[in-house]
Amino acid sequence: MPAAAFETRWLTPADATAFQRLRLAGLRASPSAFGSSYEEEKDRTLALIEARLAPSAEQGVLGAFAGAHLVGMLGIRRQDGLKTRHRMALWGVYVEPAFRGQGIAQAMLAQAVAFARQVPGAVQIHLSVNAANATAIRLYEQAGFKAYGTEPAALLVDGELHDELLMQHRLQPPSTPAA
Protein backbone atom coordinates (compact mmCIF):
# COMPACT_ATOMS: atom_id res chain seq x y z
CA MET A 1 0.00 0.00 0.00
CA PRO A 2 1.51 3.40 -0.93
CA ALA A 3 2.09 5.88 1.87
CA ALA A 4 -0.95 8.04 2.47
CA ALA A 5 -0.68 11.72 3.21
CA PHE A 6 -1.59 12.51 6.79
CA GLU A 7 -1.76 15.47 9.09
CA THR A 8 -1.64 15.67 12.86
CA ARG A 9 -3.53 18.04 15.10
CA TRP A 10 -4.78 18.30 18.67
CA LEU A 11 -8.19 16.72 19.07
CA THR A 12 -11.08 18.73 20.47
CA PRO A 13 -14.41 17.70 21.99
CA ALA A 14 -15.86 17.80 18.44
CA ASP A 15 -13.66 14.75 17.66
CA ALA A 16 -15.17 12.62 20.45
CA THR A 17 -17.02 10.18 18.18
CA ALA A 18 -13.99 9.55 15.93
CA PHE A 19 -11.70 9.25 18.98
CA GLN A 20 -13.98 6.71 20.66
CA ARG A 21 -14.24 4.66 17.45
CA LEU A 22 -10.44 4.48 17.11
CA ARG A 23 -9.83 4.00 20.84
CA LEU A 24 -12.24 1.05 21.03
CA ALA A 25 -10.77 -0.46 17.84
CA GLY A 26 -7.31 -0.29 19.42
CA LEU A 27 -8.47 -1.78 22.71
CA ARG A 28 -10.08 -4.69 20.84
CA ALA A 29 -7.26 -5.29 18.37
CA SER A 30 -4.36 -4.94 20.84
CA PRO A 31 -5.65 -5.61 24.36
CA SER A 32 -2.18 -6.24 25.79
CA ALA A 33 -0.94 -2.85 24.57
CA PHE A 34 -3.15 -0.79 26.89
CA GLY A 35 -3.74 -0.55 30.62
CA SER A 36 -7.42 0.07 29.94
CA SER A 37 -9.82 -2.39 28.33
CA TYR A 38 -12.59 -2.41 25.75
CA GLU A 39 -15.03 -3.55 28.45
CA GLU A 40 -14.14 -0.56 30.67
CA GLU A 41 -14.45 2.02 27.91
CA LYS A 42 -17.19 0.81 25.56
CA ASP A 43 -20.02 2.41 27.53
CA ARG A 44 -18.37 5.77 28.27
CA THR A 45 -20.67 8.65 27.51
CA LEU A 46 -19.95 11.10 24.74
CA ALA A 47 -19.86 13.87 27.36
CA LEU A 48 -17.10 12.08 29.27
CA ILE A 49 -15.09 11.56 26.09
CA GLU A 50 -15.58 15.21 25.10
CA ALA A 51 -14.23 16.28 28.50
CA ARG A 52 -11.22 13.97 28.04
CA LEU A 53 -10.46 15.69 24.73
CA ALA A 54 -10.59 19.25 26.04
CA PRO A 55 -7.04 20.45 25.39
CA SER A 56 -5.20 22.58 27.93
CA ALA A 57 -1.71 23.94 28.47
CA GLU A 58 -0.84 20.73 30.37
CA GLN A 59 -2.56 17.96 28.40
CA GLY A 60 -3.99 16.96 25.08
CA VAL A 61 -4.70 14.16 22.66
CA LEU A 62 -3.06 14.26 19.26
CA GLY A 63 -4.83 12.80 16.28
CA ALA A 64 -3.42 11.75 12.94
CA PHE A 65 -5.78 12.08 9.99
CA ALA A 66 -5.72 10.56 6.51
CA GLY A 67 -8.13 12.98 4.88
CA ALA A 68 -11.04 13.29 7.32
CA HIS A 69 -10.43 9.82 8.82
CA LEU A 70 -8.78 9.60 12.27
CA VAL A 71 -6.13 6.88 11.94
CA GLY A 72 -3.82 7.51 14.89
CA MET A 73 -3.82 8.97 18.39
CA LEU A 74 -1.55 9.72 21.29
CA GLY A 75 -2.35 11.29 24.67
CA ILE A 76 -0.06 13.31 26.90
CA ARG A 77 -0.80 14.82 30.29
CA ARG A 78 0.97 16.36 33.22
CA GLN A 79 0.90 14.38 36.46
CA ASP A 80 -1.36 15.89 39.13
CA GLY A 81 0.57 15.51 42.37
CA LEU A 82 2.59 18.33 43.85
CA LYS A 83 5.67 16.08 43.90
CA THR A 84 5.06 14.60 40.45
CA ARG A 85 4.10 17.71 38.43
CA HIS A 86 7.53 17.62 36.78
CA ARG A 87 6.42 14.42 35.00
CA MET A 88 4.37 14.14 31.84
CA ALA A 89 2.66 10.84 31.00
CA LEU A 90 2.32 9.51 27.47
CA TRP A 91 -0.69 7.23 27.00
CA GLY A 92 -2.97 5.57 24.45
CA VAL A 93 -0.63 5.51 21.45
CA TYR A 94 -2.33 3.70 18.57
CA VAL A 95 -2.21 3.76 14.77
CA GLU A 96 -4.61 1.73 12.62
CA PRO A 97 -2.76 -1.28 11.19
CA ALA A 98 -3.28 -0.21 7.55
CA PHE A 99 -1.49 3.09 8.29
CA ARG A 100 1.51 1.79 10.23
CA GLY A 101 5.04 2.16 8.87
CA GLN A 102 4.31 5.59 7.35
CA GLY A 103 5.82 7.80 10.05
CA ILE A 104 2.54 8.62 11.78
CA ALA A 105 3.56 7.51 15.27
CA GLN A 106 6.96 9.22 14.89
CA ALA A 107 5.27 12.50 13.88
CA MET A 108 2.87 12.36 16.82
CA LEU A 109 5.71 11.52 19.25
CA ALA A 110 7.80 14.45 17.99
CA GLN A 111 4.83 16.78 18.42
CA ALA A 112 4.11 15.43 21.92
CA VAL A 113 7.74 15.92 23.00
CA ALA A 114 7.69 19.48 21.63
CA PHE A 115 4.45 20.12 23.56
CA ALA A 116 5.95 18.75 26.79
CA ARG A 117 8.99 21.02 26.39
CA GLN A 118 6.61 24.01 26.50
CA VAL A 119 4.98 22.99 29.79
CA PRO A 120 6.60 25.07 32.55
CA GLY A 121 8.43 22.84 35.02
CA ALA A 122 8.09 19.65 32.95
CA VAL A 123 11.33 17.69 33.25
CA GLN A 124 10.50 14.27 31.76
CA ILE A 125 7.94 12.17 29.93
CA HIS A 126 7.10 8.69 31.20
CA LEU A 127 5.42 5.77 29.46
CA SER A 128 4.98 2.06 29.83
CA VAL A 129 4.95 -0.38 26.94
CA ASN A 130 4.38 -4.12 26.70
CA ALA A 131 7.87 -5.58 27.16
CA ALA A 132 7.24 -8.00 24.27
CA ASN A 133 6.36 -5.22 21.79
CA ALA A 134 9.76 -4.77 20.12
CA THR A 135 8.36 -2.51 17.39
CA ALA A 136 6.91 -0.02 19.88
CA ILE A 137 10.03 -0.13 22.06
CA ARG A 138 12.20 0.65 19.02
CA LEU A 139 9.87 3.55 18.10
CA TYR A 140 10.18 5.04 21.59
CA GLU A 141 13.95 4.55 21.68
CA GLN A 142 14.29 6.34 18.33
CA ALA A 143 12.29 9.25 19.84
CA GLY A 144 14.78 9.52 22.73
CA PHE A 145 13.08 7.40 25.41
CA LYS A 146 15.25 5.20 27.60
CA ALA A 147 14.18 2.13 29.57
CA TYR A 148 14.66 2.40 33.33
CA GLY A 149 12.89 -0.69 34.61
CA THR A 150 10.41 -3.46 34.09
CA GLU A 151 7.19 -4.04 35.97
CA PRO A 152 6.68 -7.81 36.00
CA ALA A 153 3.13 -9.07 35.48
CA ALA A 154 1.82 -5.50 35.11
CA LEU A 155 -1.20 -6.57 33.03
CA LEU A 156 -3.41 -9.65 33.09
CA VAL A 157 -5.09 -10.06 29.70
CA ASP A 158 -7.22 -13.11 28.93
CA GLY A 159 -5.47 -15.10 31.65
CA GLU A 160 -1.96 -14.22 30.44
CA LEU A 161 0.46 -12.02 32.40
CA HIS A 162 2.35 -9.28 30.54
CA ASP A 163 5.42 -7.37 31.72
CA GLU A 164 5.60 -3.63 31.08
CA LEU A 165 8.82 -1.84 30.18
CA LEU A 166 9.03 1.56 31.91
CA MET A 167 10.59 4.32 29.81
CA GLN A 168 11.33 8.01 30.16
CA HIS A 169 12.47 10.87 27.98
CA ARG A 170 14.40 13.58 29.83
CA LEU A 171 13.33 17.00 28.57
CA GLN A 172 15.73 19.08 30.64
CA PRO A 173 17.94 18.62 33.65
CA PRO A 174 16.25 19.00 37.02
CA SER A 175 16.76 22.38 38.64
CA THR A 176 19.53 22.55 41.21
CA PRO A 177 18.35 23.02 44.78
CA ALA A 178 19.18 26.40 46.28
CA ALA A 179 22.20 26.30 48.58
TrEMBL record:
CDD domains from the UniProt entry: NAT_SF (cd04301)
Name listed for the protein in its UniProt record: GNAT family N-acetyltransferase
Domain N-acetyltransferase: 6-172
Keyword Transferase: yes
Record key words, sorted: Transferase
Source organism of this protein record: Comamonas koreensis
A UniProt-annotated Pfam family: Acetyltransf_1
Keyword Acetylation belongs to the record: no
